[in-house]
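**Archive record**
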Amino acid sequence: MHGSFTHATTMPPSALPARNVYNEPIVPCSFSPVTGFFRDGCCRTGDEDVGMHAVCAVMTEDFLRFSRERGNDLSTPRPEWGFPGLKPGDQWCLCTARWHEAFLAEVAPPVVLESTNLQVLEEIPLGVLERFGVERE
């Protein structure tokens, strides 16, 4: 056949539309500050995101202190990285393992489920996340 395509094109997984924990299109987590591994406001993840920044969480003072004590200071601005520093109430795409660690330490921040990536369910059961679920700001 003249002019037909002979090969399929595929998009890298990071370019595919993300799904939330309810297997619906993911809703952006935050544009102020701009979050996400790809800095597109969404908790999308892909092979290059080894930390799986996929949990859309609402920062709390307890969690920010916990994260700082674990060596990841999310409160201090880092202008060289374009990072404004986070404060309580900010929404941010957290690493799944860090959220789980905070859960075990009883300082897990609230979760915006419609903005949390489906892939998180590989590590954390939906029922656990739902106990921390809040509405998107």
